[in-house]
Amino acid sequence: MASNPTATQLTAAPAKRTGLVRCIAIVLLALIVLAGIVVLIIWLVVKPKRPVYTIEDGSVHDFNVNNNHLNSTFGFVIRAHNPNGRASIYYDSIEVSVAYDDQNVAFSTLVPFHQPTRNVTRLDAKILAQNVAISSSIAKDLKLEKTSGEIELAVRVKAKIRFRVGAWKSNHRTLRVVCDPVMLHFSSSKSFQRTYCDIDL
């Protein structure tokens, strides 16, 4: 005649399962912590530096303000410098906008690219303002700017970037660049003055 299992025997199997789950959880947590430490060590050793941005050239064409709407083509040569000796930079998306008196009046996107270490890349940005609605006060100010022969703008760049060191790539980071003020001349006879930009990363 088979004997009935005791209370100790009945609780042994659940206890073993609980112990196994706990062991797996500890191993997974240890692996996550180890991976985090490795990434932190790589980051501290490499110490990626911020890119350096300047506006090297700028122009304005077909500028017209009519019925509180702006049409124009703005052209900029944006100089991006990667000062890092070990980390290259992936630019996965790049947005460029032009603002006047804190109002965005033109917007464009640039082609994504990979920037090697200690590299200077010049981005040719053509930014179109097509029938952009503006307030009557801004329309008045823009007409006065054209009469004066020059216009003061702000150029902003927003990019999703990743740093790469060897086979390791960082997570996406948002790079924000603000170049202000940028002075554009309506007459091509006047030379453009380089503008240095502020970086937020």
In a few lines, what is going on in this structure?
InterPro entries: LEA_2, NDR1-like. The protein is an alpha+beta fold.
Structural notes for this entry:
The structure is a single chain. The protein is an alpha+beta fold. It folds into two domains: 1-46; 52-200, Immunoglobulin-like, CATH 2.60.40. Helices cover 26% and strands 52% of the residues. It has two helices and eleven strands. The strands form two sheets. Strands 3, 4, 5, 7, 8, 9 and 11 form a seven-stranded antiparallel beta sheet that branches. The protein has a four-stranded antiparallel beta sheet with strand order 6-2-1-10. A hairpin with a 2-residue loop joins strand 7 and strand 8. The longest helix is centred in the N-terminal third of the chain and has 40 residues, at 7-46. The N and C termini lie far apart (76 Å). 20% of the residues are buried. The model has no long low-confidence stretch (mean pLDDT 89). InterPro entries: LEA_2, NDR1-like. This is Late embryogenesis abundant protein LEA-2 subgroup domain-containing protein. One of its GO terms (cellular component) is membrane. The chain crosses the membrane at residues 24-46.
